[in-house]
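Structure tokens please, single chain.
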Amino acid sequence: MGIAVGGAMALSGAVLTAPAEAAPNADTPVATTQLNYTKPTEVRLRWAGASGFQYEIGWLANPHWGDFPDVTPPQHAGPEDLATGTDVVITSRSGSTVAQEHRSTGATATVTIPAGQTYKAMSGWSVLTQDADGALHVLRAAADGTTTDLPVTGLPPGAQPTGTYVTGGSVRRLAVAYTLEGATSVGLVDLADGTFRMYVGGVGAEPVITFNDRWVVVNRKAIRVDSAPGTEPATVSFPYNALGVVGDQILSGNPEFTSSDADLALTAVSLVTGARRTVLDHADGTYKVTTDGGLVADAGKSSSDRHVYRVLPTADGDVSARPVFTVPPGRARVDGLMLAGGELLMFGNATNVGWDAAYAVPLDTAGKPTGPQARRSPYVDSSPCLGGDAACPQLEALGDGRFAYLHTNSDGKESVHVAGDTDTFLTEPTGSAGGRIGTGTGRYVLYNGGTPATQKIADFPRGADGETALDRTRSAAAVWGQRLWTPGTTQGSVVAYDLKAKRNVATVNTGAPCTPSEIQAVNTWLYWSCGSEGPAGVHDRATGRNITVPAGPARLADGYLIRENRTTHELLLTDFHTGTATTRTAAVLPAVDQNTGGNTGRWAVDRFGGNVAYLTAQGQVAIVTAGVPTSPLAQMEARTDAAAGPTTQDPWQPVWQLSKPSTWTLTLTNASGDVVRSLTGDSMAAAVRASWDGKWGDGNRVAGTYTWRLTAKARDGQGPDLALTGTTTVN
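Here you go.
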């Protein structure tokens, strides 16, 4: 898996990249997004200083530099000015030379290690070495190209360094552990003058050491750097591992064992007062102390919202955490696409283990992502694709936040499944095999059986398993709302059957010169086809117009068709909303299929007033704005039956399936005409879902009949508001 990472500090939660798939004669995508792995990409922090940090991302050794935003880096003043060493890195270390670079200015220096000395550590401009007798030295490059050698003084006679040399949040000091008479102690070397001072004794063989220019913390003991000689360190309590000292705070995290999300926190504990607070949630990544007394940490709840944060001291003794880099999520393979009601649903395995799931990304009216992805289904096992099927996997977005798919049972028969949340799915057996999903909206899903060749309408009311609303002989058919459209008894006629009323409610003459072999319905548009060679057309029920459109497999949307030319790989958009069909190339698809292609495989169209999405050669999803005016907001189906009570535990939960996304207000009015409750919200895709516990705004509950009024405003701003009314009861 390749990951492209730049130095820019992008902080958006959604993945938006510059479109790279458009051909000269195709529409330019408004955005691209991708299916992100749910597990955050591994970030390894290698160095952190005053101006930025170095990191590796993914599994490969691929170092990158990231600059801290809005930071003026320290100016180069030469190795004699230790403070400028907060921006110094090792560029190479070979034999007796250490090459240094002041990162923000590019100034370099070389430290030559004298014969008989060995390299132990480097902090800023200073290099710590040890000679054959065990004595320590501080080396620095001089202005004339030579190396100064400053012997370390102050170690007790007979002290033997253990080999533990620790750099921390300082370029003036460096920690050294030593043994003397069987006991291990820890102190700091002042790199300016080479003096050593012991701070904490009796620390054990492998002490955990963190420090800055104010504090030294060894294991669970803390002491001020400027404390008087002989001062005993104090015991300090912090929840997890010590990660660094920032100002007057010890930062703790990265436990060896986690039992809940709370264990993933980065915690600050005051070394002055003992006060404790959470600095970052979900800080289960890597950490690095910065040479200027701060800390960088990799944190975030999901791969779509993962950042590197810079933690610095504040003037009041606390610390602040600011995101300085967005960690790009790893891209998972997309095995299916759905668009409905301004939501993109990407179907695939984003966990590296287990089965597939659908992940939703909200889109604005132009098609740009407006938030991170969220899993919208349990992990599902889709049925095997039919041989030569160019529309596999078989998925159907229902326009209410849910989608339908096929599942093959242990007896070889298929069930229609509907999923829409992370934990559950609903099911309805078909009794058939080798079938496929036709169309579906809201609660109704059309299934075309293979063997036997039956046609069923599966009904999935809210929160309940399905039932068969209609079982008939297979023919061309389409579901839109609560109506099933099928061929009539005369040539070119199409009949509407109301699935609730259980009767035919309309007959439309489409002008087709055949009994249609395919029918699709969206709003007032009826698409018909006489076969793959045509002819084909669209009938507008609102105006009675018959419009000729190109032949070939197509998908109907609101005012336009989308079809794929499998020879030229063009995704063609035919706009017929004016009464005359005009066709343009919306996209040029990859010449090689990532999967078996087709609608919901390598492209998808939003029938609920939306746009077009397709897979790019890079495995991303590009969104193209359809640019076709949408139909006025309309109700397709509703469930408004009164609930017993209703109560807080069992509220009245009406659902209005609308034709496109909306914002809505639901008012409840008593018999006197007074508004007793007003509810507002945004539709789930194109479905309005409300909940009322029967109480007035003041908390009272009065039995009686109430008038409800739903006012919905189209999210795309096109067309008048929709107003619906009815009654419900409170017992």
